[in-house]
Write a structure and sequence with these properties.
Blueprint: E1 8-10, E2 32-34, E3 56-58, E4 80-82, E5 90-91, E6 104-106, E7 114-115, E8 128-130, E9 152-154, E10 162-163, E11 176-178, E12 186-187, E13 200-202, E14 210-211, E15 224-226, E16 234-235
Parallel strand pairs: 1-2, 2-3, 3-4, 4-6, 5-7, 6-8, 8-9, 9-11, 10-12, 11-13, 13-15, 14-16
InterPro entries: Leu-rich_rpt, Leu-rich_rpt_typical-subtyp, LRR_dom_sf, LRR_TM_domain-containing
Keywords: Glycoprotein, Leucine-rich repeat, Repeat, Signal
GO cellular component, one term: plasma membrane
């Protein structure tokens, strides 16, 4: 292609299975690329290397199962990356290297069961992360390390059963956390420590039977708390102490 002044390229909803090396060469001014709803199964390492101005990349609803290390390395201006509705099972360390200006990432509706530690550490500008409707059962310590600007984290519709202490440490700017529709039975003391800016917390449709006395003690900014559809039989006295801004429950 020789359209050097092209800003937007829309190739969505076709039957594209393969994108050959050099397809996007010389599209140095391209800012938006739509490739969703095709049949793409592989992303070659050099596929996007010339798209230095790209800000929005949509790869959702394809057949992508694996993302290679450093595949997005040259996309330093990328703001939105959509990889939702694919067949990705593992998020490996290094695949998001170089995306220092990324603000929104969609990884929902995949088959993700494993996320390696510090996999998001290069995404220091990220504000919204969508991981809903996957097969995540465990969140390791350090998975969200480096996401100091994250505001919204969606983990709705996974298989998470236990919330470990300190897994959200470092997410000091988080305002919305969605843990609804999981298998959470136990939330350990300290799980929500340091989430002082959290305003919205979804815990509906889990298997929570009891609420520990100090579970919410650090959530001083919380305004909305959803605990619908759980198995709560016991609520200790004073569990909502400190939630002075809570308006909806």
């Amino acid at each position: 292609m020789g359209f050097k002044n092209l800003k937007t390229l829309d190739l969505q909803s076709n039957n594209i299975a393969t994108i050959k090396e050099g397809t996007f060469t010389k599209l140095s001014n391209l800012t938006t690329l739509y490739l969703q709803n095709n049949k793409i199964s592989r992303i070659e390492k050099v596929m996007f290397q010339d798209l230095h101005s790209l800000q929005y990349l949509y790869l959702g609803a394809n057949n992508i199962s694996t993302i290679k290390h450093g595949i997005f390395m040259g996309l330093k201006n990328l703001k939105t990356l959509n990889l939702g509705a694919n067949s990705i099972s593992t998020i490996k360390h290094g695949i998001f290297m170089g995306l220092k200006n990324l603000k929104t990432m969609y990884l929902q509706d995949n088959k993700i069961s494993r996320i390696e530690e510090v996999v998001f550490q290069d995404l220091r500008s990220l504000q919204d992360l969508y991981l809903g409707a996957n097969n995540i059962s465990t969140i390791k310590h350090g998975v969200f390390m480096g996401l100091k600007n994250l505001k919204s984290l969606d983990l709705n519709g996974n298989n998470i059963s236990t919330m470990k202490q300190g897994i959200f440490n470092g997410l000091s700017n988080l305002t919305t956390l969605d843990l609804g529709h999981n298998n959470i039975a136990t939330i350990k003391e300290g799980t929500f420590t340091k989430l002082s800016n959290l305003t919205t917390l979804y815990l509906q449709e889990n298997k929570i039977s009891s609420i520990e006395e100090e579970m919410f003690q650090d959530l001083h900014s919380l305004q909305y708390l959803n605990l619908d559809g759980n198995k709560i039989s016991t609520m200790k006295q004073g569990i909502f102490n400190g939630l002075s801004k809570l308006t909806t429950m």
